[in-house]
Amino acid sequence: MGLDAFVRCNCYRDGQAQPFPLPHLEAHIVVNDDGFLALNVPEDDHPEALRQFDEWKSHACPHEGMMVVFERISNWSGYRAFQEALGRMGWRHFPTLERELPALNGGQMPTAAAVRVLAELGLFRRRIGQQHNLFLVNSDSGDVVYEYIAVYDGVFMWSGDEKLNFGFNAGGFFIAAQHPQSAVRNGRVLFQALRLEQRLLSAPGEPLRVEYFNADTEERFLCHSLTGGTIDDYPALLHVEERPLTPEDFEYILLPLQKVCEAAIATGNPVVWC
Ligand SMILES: [Zn+2]
Fold this sequence. Notes:
By secondary structure, this protein is an alpha+beta fold. It has three domains: 69 residues, no CATH class; 83 residues, no CATH class; 113 residues, no CATH class. 24% of the residues lie in helices and 32% in strands. It is built from five helices and 16 strands. Strand 13 and strand 14 form a beta hairpin. The longest helix has 17 residues. Zinc ion (ZN) binds next to loops.
């Protein structure tokens, strides 16, 4: 789950697409409210025409589905991390992103706004180094496993089976019971550690058994969930650290946003969120 975006090409408008195979229905080709090129005829009366339209649209020009770009902008947790960084730097510096970034899948951003968003992304890259955040880090490799997201209270995994939330904050990594009223809220903290080991106790094919071990207090916690990997590849040693943010921490979202904005400017068409 996450946010995607695309920008339509102009091949059909400019007469550069292959001809629509049903010319008598061509007057019904429209850009619909969702930003898609669509054949606006009742589905019940024209199922075959709609099938042919989809077929035609997917191959009528060099752009698949008549989109010059189609980009995964981010999964939702990456999206929240980006919004929180913008918020900490001050939304007043990013008025276009504040107005245009969608809350849900859907909606459009006009070309004029795309020009301003590019400038705001440039500002973000220049200033992000002044911000700090907490990270859960693979102590062996130094790789970031998760970034702290305040709106999730630092939780990165909600285990419905076990009714446990896995997260971290300035006090360290924690495993908390889920709140009786809402799984997304934390109840009692059952395990906490600034430096920890996770140990896979189960053999291959057995139900997963994982021991979390506090490297400072030697406290242990047994459960069925691994943090940050698979049974073949998971971080054995983890710690929480605070460090400055860098543009590289946000390339996953900065690059696709930049791409769709550039495509909107090149075509004059809006960015369509989906
Ligand atoms: Zn095209």
